[in-house]
């Protein structure tokens, strides 16, 4: 069972929802201890006084801001807690925006929100459903572990999600900060057409479970091989950069290779991935109920079958509405 990392309330307007915050991800990385080469002895990090070299207890450590010339401004933790006592318990929604307005560079971390107890489930469900049906995200701020965060709240399938964001002044300007970027002249039309064809040929559905962290897998294999006294093979070197002269040929061959790997198109009589034709569809009397029983992944696949535009940005409720509207339009025509 996950443990909460923060507890407080969400406020929007005059409505308050007591909630708990949970990490949405868990680390799967291989972790190593630090050892002294040749001895195998553990290496430990200790807090020591820089001047005396003596160990310092954790309770005797305070924060110090470097004021220059070797001087520090000492700040106690209770002083930091005292400047925002109420805000450390409140996720204050300032407004609502379209989620796709938030540039990906701003996103930092993801958390789940749950009602603090069953009695708050109704208000929690109201906020989640309203966000799902409007397609909006709440922009909010709150304080956690001594830091203030800018966040967005959005509706997941059955849960409220909280995404921490970077502040605007933390986002670097690539034109100013990167050493080089190409100019804005438009590529040649033939090369651009080939690049578009390659993107079309490689377009697929978003299935995160189809991907794995191959580096961590190889790290584990390395550890196991060394433990068993086996030899390990080095990875292949990265491919060389594409020569500008060969660019068009490389694009053409890439399109051909990607096209040969695509799954054959489904014939008109083939069954849908979302289920056989025996069950009620969205247009039958039980259609709405059936759609509401499907997972978001199944709804997305059905939306792909129906060529619903903008489906990649839709949440579960929006997919249900779009599929229902598509069937009503088709029936009316």
UniProtKB/TrEMBL annotation:
Family matches, as InterPro entries: DNA_bd_Ku70/Ku80, Prok_Ku, SPOC-like_C_dom_sf
Ku domain residues: 53-183
A Pfam family matched in the record: Ku
Biological process according to GO: DNA recombination; double-strand break repair via nonhomologous end joining
MF-aspect GO terms: double-stranded DNA binding
Span of the signal peptide: 1-23
Biased composition (Basic and acidic residues): 175-194, 227-237, 249-265, 294-310
Region (Disordered): 175-197, 227-333
Family that this chain belongs to: Belongs to the prokaryotic Ku family.
Protein name (database record): Non-homologous end joining protein Ku
Organism of this sequence: Streptomyces abyssalis
Lineage: Bacteria, Bacillati, Actinomycetota, Actinomycetes, Kitasatosporales
Protein's gene: ku
